């Protein structure tokens, strides 16, 4: 943290002073709010009640005066001097005596039923017609109170005064002793009494309250009020409320645009003509009514300001006392911090303890201890840092060396990778151009690779077979189970099994069209980290097989006659002997040798001899049963094998059937020749030893004997 930063922050002394001042300010403001809310509200209510009470006092006083006037009228009309008056003088006397009791009775008079004044105080208006006056009309039937009005007739007759004459009337009917109507008696009260009432009511508190009393007639005309407002009309809320019969107080603005608190009430009894309904309003300016509360508010504000200043000063002094030792402590620490870094080796000066109040002493000691510990830790940290830097330098060198190795290894890896890719491409080319079909399988027998030769051989394209199981596609159904079993065993045993791996196996497969193909398979196992492989090379051996079969057939055939040759005859004879023993039925062997065949060769040539041998073979084959075997043993020697003999005679019968057939002439190209053939018969019985040489030897010997006998017979002929 820079020095600028530190000085930019407010000081503790400032914070404490401002804090205390703010608390005092808040307290004063709160008090002002409370005063405004409660004290002024209270003062308002108090003033309202006071004004309301003044209004009531005035109302009651007015009621009492009107009541007294109507009471006096009732009293007069009951007097015999009035009821049965004999002369105006007598009546006048009674009236004047009443006038003396209440000076505000300005005029008292009695009118005849026709409205002419019969008698009156001081004889005023006697004989004058008052039948049109309200009091005369209202007072004919019952007691009547006449509202405030100016003097009409009496104004000029009464003595002049500073104020013009204003009256309130009280009137009532006068009845004779016999109950007949005599006239109306009326009292005119001058308005001065009302002014005195108001003055008396307000006088005790006038200085204190500066209140005004208003008596307002029903039409809104002020009949009693401050100078200048009398006989003026007013309109305000308190008037309306009082006219509605309500009583109370309120705050309102009057015609002079000032705010007043006003107490209001209504005099008289509604519907009673002997009373007068006047609104009695007592008003006081709001500022005067609330003057006390406002003064309290000002005092609190002043007191708060003084208290704030005093407390702020006190707080400043206390804060200064608190911060001085802290500043000293800070200065010590800053001095230590400002020591240059290279001076770390030299022992730094101890922190000077600050001798002040308890907390600062504790803080000072704690900081000194902290600094000592920091020195120790700094020393340890420096040592650790040096060690760490050494270690980091070593590690950096090590990392650089490893990075170099890694770079070389990566380069090597890249070149190996490239080599591998080239090798893979080469391999692909080799496989695609190989003469043999190449198939790679996973251990489950699913095709992983398939070269062009495999496409040509089996008919499926590479894309069609990748991912397909090979066995289901190319193996005949009978072989599939064996194939799947073998694949499982191979997958389990891997390279360890030698059953079919690395050997050539011949198999018959189906191509895509279902045609059988003979193939030679060489299967190899390739162990890999990512799933082992079986690779198979398939070579089409169909042609070789058919060639071999035809060669084998040729090896067993006599090329001249097409009959089985000696080798084939040996195999057939061996099988026949086995069958005879097994089926318990005899078989026979004929040994046939042409007689004098050599002479044909010698006379007609070797080719004619060959033709004769072919015709002879065909003639023998046609003569014996199809199930019998005819073969050429060598030269002009033929063998016939007869199986399933019922008896030895069956063989003799066949020989007898052959002899004449063979003696028939043979038509050759250049000549027709007649030859015979000597037949030697040897019979093999089921219990005889299965010795073909011995059996052939016996047949040969028998043939020889027969040939000799035939030669002798020909010589004798
Ligand atoms: N044309 C021809 N002659 C053959 C063939 N094989 C053997 N020969 C001849 O057949 C003759 C057989 O000899 P021999 O059995 O002594 O002659 P042979 O005249 O029948 O005598 P005998 O049996 O005693 O009557 C020989 O002259 C052979 O050269 C052959 O394939 N074709």
From TrEMBL:
Statement: the UniProt record of this protein carries the keyword tRNA-binding: no
> What keywords were assigned to this record?
Membrane, Transmembrane, Transmembrane helix
- Name its species: Duganella aceris
PAS domain location is 423-504
Q: Which PANTHER family match?
A: BIOFILM ARCHITECTURE MAINTENANCE PROTEIN MBAA (PTHR44757:SF2), DIGUANYLATE CYCLASE DGCP (PTHR44757)
Q: In this protein, which residues make up the domain named PAC?
A: 503-553
Protein name, entry field: Diguanylate cyclase
Q: Where are the transmembrane segments?
A: 12-35, 300-319
List, alphabetically, the PROSITE patterns matched.
GGDEF, PAC, PAS
